[in-house]
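Fresh eyes needed here. Kindly weigh in on this sequence plus structure tokens:
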Amino acid sequence: MLLAAVMVFGSAWASLAWSVPPAETGECAWTVRLVDDPRPAGGGTAAVVDTGEMRLRAVAHGASGWRLARLDAGDTVSLRGSCGPSARFADRDRVNHVLGTMRVTEVGAAAPSPSPAHRAANRMRHLVERGVRHMDDEDAALFMGLIIGDDRNQPREMIEDFRASGLSHLCSVSGQNVAYVLALCGPFLRRLRPASRLVATLAVIGWFVVLTRAEPSVLRASMMAAVVALNFFRGDPRNARDVLAVSVTVLLVIDPLLAHSVGFALSAGATAGLAWLSRPLGSRMGLPGVLAATVAAQVGTLPVALLVFGRVPLVSLVANPLAVPVAGLVMLAGIPASVVSGLVPDAVAAPLAAVVALPVQWVAGVATVCARIEPRGPAAVAAWIATAVGAVLWARRHRAVAG
């Protein structure tokens, strides 16, 4: 009965969210709150803004674009321009609750976010950005993507290489990032009493969501971390399958349009593959841990990847074991290292940045090389068939040896 009630409520809520009318065409002026960070767009600057009545995609050029680009998510600013329904990406915008486009002609007075969490997160982001000032531009862009999912400055070639090699998930904040942040805070959290520890853990998770701008993959990972923390406090630990099911259900009830988010589907699919398949692949096929996890995650994302992108990179079976452990090191040490680099003088920050850049360059190199050797067309089909046959033969051999 509870499941039926959730399904009925979710369906009705989703229908209501999808049927909201788009923005009307005409002149408009509001004091808005930035939902995300401004990013380059067609020679100008674009940002999703909340007017208090609806969300719009504000696009500005020239001096107005320069002023908009200096703001951060959570800041408030007065905008004037012309509004209308979304045209080019109407369905994608609707999934993100964006109901129209605002062509900005004037950017007025701006103020920092009234939220202490947003202000603290923005200060941290600025400190991290200052910490990579001595890195090469591409290294810095990839570093920011690995630790907080900020891919705004990544060149198109880098983005394509990471997609073709099956490593694009590294630049989307996931449970691995959340786990590393909680591990960094662990020595302090363990000193607290159980109730205080739960509250502090949830506060850290919430702050990390704000820091990483509440992307769908972040929401999934953070909700799972919150459920695990709550179960630990109750003395009722659950397996990853239960935690994933509860987390996805809660998030879809809160925002049913997440069901249309490709990032959310890929994140949930990869986690489902890990939860259901990684152990059987390791025990029954004798695959090493990292390779078993890679294959399990690939199987979990396979339906979405085929439907949306039309391909599943075979080379990711090699790229992930080579890149993920090194990327994990960057995720674990990246924030504290960049904070230290942002605080110390250039004479200390430069060599520290050079050391941090080494694993970042390794990850970028793996993506570049694997993207170049990824088979395409009929060769890709033949390679996948050969891989499947090899996997079957490997599994039979492992069962024979084990038996």
Observations:
- The CA atoms of residues 10 and 16 lie 10 Å apart.
